[in-house]
Design goal:
The structure holds 2 protein chains of 2 kinds. Chain A is mainly alpha-helical. Helix content of chain A is 75%, strand content 0%. Chain B is mainly α. Chain B starts with a helix and ends with a helix. Classes of the chains: A mainly alpha, B mainly alpha. At the A-B interface, helix 1, helix 2 and helix 3 of A face helix 2, helix 4, strand 1, helix 5 and strand 2 of B.
Chain lengths: 115, 181
């Protein structure tokens, strides 16, 4: 009974993680420029990877497998923002200018984030 | 000889403003972390494999010593507890931002307004600033692009994400993790 419950929850988490990975991939195709594509890429390696790892964690029958999955999550926590930052910084250093909204969804234009 | 090298590393870091930096303590901390890692990853407790593990740990610590990597940045023991208390808040922010960005990506009208802006950074140490920059990048909707003393350049997907950074709660929380310097 409990086993089935855990199994079901595990599948739910795996499917939700897969959904975030697919939405992330979809966003990378849909968004207009390099910088904005970094954001959906972040979906895949935070919620996507996180939920899939959680789902796998519930499938782990031996403690040592669980520990390894947690270590993978820990390493992702450091590597994914570092590589994301390096990629974005390289684009900025190469002189790539960010795309700005002009006619998308009625949003404001030229906003510099100031309050 | 080793003792001497450690002392030199300690002196060099003092003018870098390191707080509570004790190379011996950090060296022992690194040793313990590596031993725990080995045991958890191997799961075997035979003499041969344990001695291979001990040799690997000793070799790694020796290399770290030679490279002067055993300091407050290489082995940041002093903020471990504070980081653990910060993580739940960060995870919750990441979850909220994930749902928000996912909704914008699949929204038919694609409601985004990317902007590039500078935000203030109040952390005093490199470690604190890196923690802040990485927290910003980990949160979907904002990516840190350039880090200079006192200021961080951020690319945000929409105004809400930009205001979230400028509002400064994450900045304050990371400064609290870093502690008084």
């Amino acid at each position: 009974m409990i086993g089935q419950l855990v199994d079901g929850l595990s599948w739910l988490l795996l499917l939700a993680g897969a959904a975030f990975v697919i939405i992330g991939a979809f966003g990378m195709l849909r968004l207009p420029d390099f910088y904005s594509r970094l954001h959906p890429a972040g979906l895949t390696d935070t919620m996507g990877a996180g939920l899939i790892l959680l789902g796998l964690l519930l499938q782990a029958e031996v403690a040592i497998v669980a520990v390894k999955l947690l270590l993978i999550a820990g390493f992702l926590l450091f590597t994914s923002p570092t590589s994301g930052h390096a990629t974005a910084r390289a684009a900025l250093a190469a002189g790539l200018r960010p795309w700005r909204a002009t006619d998308v969804g009625g949003s404001k234009t030229g906003k510099d984030g100031g309050k | 000889m080793e003792q001497n090298r450690v002392a030199v590393a300690g002196r060099k870091n003092e003018d870098g403003g390191a707080i509570g930096y004790r190379p011996i303590i950090h060296g022992i901390g690194l040793c313990l972390a590596l031993v725990v890692c080995w045991l958890l990853l191997s799961g075997y407790f035979e003499i041969l494999l344990l001695s291979l593990g001990a040799a690997s740990v000793a070799f790694s610590v020796w290399i770290a010593l030679r490279m002067d990597l055993i300091d407050h940045e290489g082995v940041p023991m002093h903020i471990t507890w504070a980081v653990l208390r910060y993580l739940p808040w960060l995870f919750w922010e990441i979850i909220k931002a994930n749902i928000d960005v996912a909704r914008r990506v699949i929204h038919p009208a694609l409601p985004i307004a990317p902007s590039l802006f500078d935000a203030p950074v109040s952390q005093n140490t490199d470690l604190g600033q890196v923690l802040y920059a990485n927290s910003i990048t980990l949160t979907p909707g904002t990516v840190s692009i350039d880090l200079n003393p006192g200021v961080i350049r951020v690319h945000a997907l929409h105004d809400g994400a930009a205001e979230g950074v400028l509002e400064g709660e994450m900045d304050r929380r990371v400064s609290a993790v870093e502690g008084p310097v």
